[in-house]
Amino acid sequence: MILDHEIPNGSKLYFGNSAKIKRKIEHIASDILDSNGFEEIVTPVFSYHQHLSVADDKELIRVNDAQNNSLSLRADSTIDVVRIIEKRLGKNTEQKKWFYIQPVFRYPTEEQYQVGAEFMGETKLSSVMNIAVSIFAKLEVKPLVQISNIKIPELLVEMFDELCIDDFRHINIEKFLNLKVEWLEKLVYLQYLDQIDEVMVIAPESIQVELQKMKNLCIETKYEKTVLAPMYYAKMLYYDEVFFRVIDNNEVYARGGRYKNEELTSVGFAIYTDALCEKLSK
Predict the structure, then answer these.
(1) Inside any domain, residue 240
(2) What distance in Å separates the CA atoms of residue 109 and residue 131, rounded to the nearest whole number?
(3) pLDDT beyond 90 at 3
(4) CA 62 vs CA 68, 107, 113: distances in Å
(5) Residue 62: which domain range?
(6) Best CA proximity match to 188, nearest among 172, 164, 201
(7) What CATH number is associated with residue 48?
(8) Which of 55, 98, 172, 263 shows the greatest Cβ crowding within 10 Å of its Cβ?
(9) Alpha carbons 215 and 212: distance in angstroms, whole number
(10) What distance in Å separates the CA atoms of residue 111 and residue 211, rounded to the nearest whole number?
């Protein structure tokens, strides 16, 4: 029996103080993004292209349109924003910086509010990561920023027959250490910027290149609470290189990274409003 006051598990309800905090987050974020040259976009709730954004398409909430074509509720905003700007609005605007404030939906009834930004045609991740950090600073939240590089797990799978990508999804440290490779062991324990040169000196050239990208991002952002996690593998489908997570007490407040849609390389991030609301409510 479903009671009159019940709402689906995973959906969100904001009222009173929680609604006020949510609006404060969105207001501060939109002001900072606007001052950095970003314009707002609100994309349709229904999409034909969500399978390009979500690694596990079982998470999509699917419906059909009037012609019985398959579509789904918006489960991620990034690729839809880039496709709409590039394919639909491309001739009408030269704007490359866009932000959105809207929820996404995952099967069966999960609802998640986000503030996101996409800088189309930009390859320098620090250009948006610094903005994300400034939003948290304005909210007086000082989380940890974790920098990773999706290329490193992919290269290690190519180098070692014993490894598969699931080892990185599940952070199988014991398996990495059992390979008895000195530079790999140092890579596993790499956490801070002042350790990275020691690893780069003995690592293969291809790994050195990717570690240098992580090092550059640390230097360009200069955020004191930054750690490195080269063995972490992102679950997002479209990140292809350096990316970051904003974390506090195992709660993820934001993700961002570099990605490619067809031939266009871009950078962006999403702040998870619900987790921030809970933090600021406390």
Answers:
(1) no
(2) 31
(3) no
(4) 12, 9, 19
(5) 1-142+268-282
(6) 172
(7) 3.30.930.10
(8) 98
(9) 5
(10) 35
